[in-house]
Amino acid sequence: MARSIAEINEKIERGNAVVLTAQEVCDIIKGGEDLAFEDVDVVTTATRAIMSGTYVVLSFPMAEPCSFIRAERAWINNVPASIGPCPNERLGIIDLMVFGTSHSKEKSDYGGGHLFRDIVEGKEVQVKVETSEDESFTKAITLEDIPYARIFSTRNAFKNYVAFVNPRDAPLPTIFSALDFPPGLTCATVSGCGQLNPIKNDPYLETIGIGTRILLNGSEGFVIGTGTRSMATRPNLLGLADMHQMNPEYMGGFVTSAGPECIGSWAVPIPVLNESILENIKKLDKELSLPIMDVNIRQVICTTNYEDVWGSTDLEIEFDPIKCINCTNCTVEPVCPMRAITLEGGQISRDKERCFNCGLCTSQCIGGAFKGNLGTINFEGKKIPIILRQSDRARAIKLAEELKLDILDGSFRITKMVEHIRGGL
Ligand code: SF4
Ligand code: SF4
User: Fold this and answer.
1) Is the CB of 254 under 6 A from ligand 1?
2) What pTM, to 2 d.p., does this model score?
3) Domain residue spans in the chain?
């Protein structure tokens, strides 16, 4: 049995298409029921995680025409930017690129990911430009002043990712831990949204290709190829979208012990074109391999599965202010990777929208005010507690639900790819 994207789009227009999220499909299967090809037309998938391979291209007027010949160096909120590629000679306009992993020289916990969210939130950001004539220009701008603002996501949305442990006897600063990674196989950090991940649901890229319409940080965009280090066994995606329509809740900076990283979110529709596509969608966390790497050498030393991470754990972290004992020095506020915890007037509070559900606070809070079961990974029969999640499955589920509603109300159109990307484009 088979169906085409055109047939699916006709059903959507007629109002009788069945669209489910990958979570709904997996809940049905986990509950002991089955789902047949006739039962579902489209499945929405999503992931929210640290996605280092992210940069923005911005183009905007910096000064009056002929105020300077060409820009040479630039910073936004002290985060370094690269000028170009277009020189815009004598136009007073600058084109620039900012990497999601660039760090502010003045503020060690602020980087490109934070800047992108600030821009999308409509905050005023400070631009500084040095020109070929050694002059300096500064300007405060908001997103409204930037006609061209697009995020390009290279190496995003891996099929799934890995868990990390540190078997050595010394702590290690790394982007895979918010604190220096504790030694001695005492804890693990994990990434990957498991059964929700887009490419897990289309592992042979039968429906995801060049021209596939997606939501990138909530904004409609397109897949334009695979990213760096993509391979047939472990593909990833390259995409772009306009920042003007993005939702800041799905973006941001995440502070690790090796500096700030960048968060990205993808939602991808999988049209159920044949039964074999549905079989992959029905695969549960327990069927998805989770390689465990030694963070020192980035090599796989053991393997478990995503059931350890998401099977019976809490997707959201709870904060109970009544349990806070107002420690003289709060041990959580300075290490929260999202800086979502603040101390004001002697009271600790948590910004739920900014919170990533990483779970670090559950092991760092002295009074037990933060609650959430992060689970353990199975390392050769030994249970190693997870102390940090660098993927936010709760938000991935929310994003997949939003995409489902957009498809059903006709505001998001499913596209047929123009070309497969298996060749490595
Ligand atoms: S789970 Fe805790 S540590 Fe992590 S972002 Fe939320 S408040 Fe911060
Ligand atoms: S460590 Fe926990 S209990 Fe102590 S002040 Fe911070 S939030 Fe409150």
Assistant:
1) no
2) 0.95
3) 5-51+157-313+374-408, 55-150, 318-371
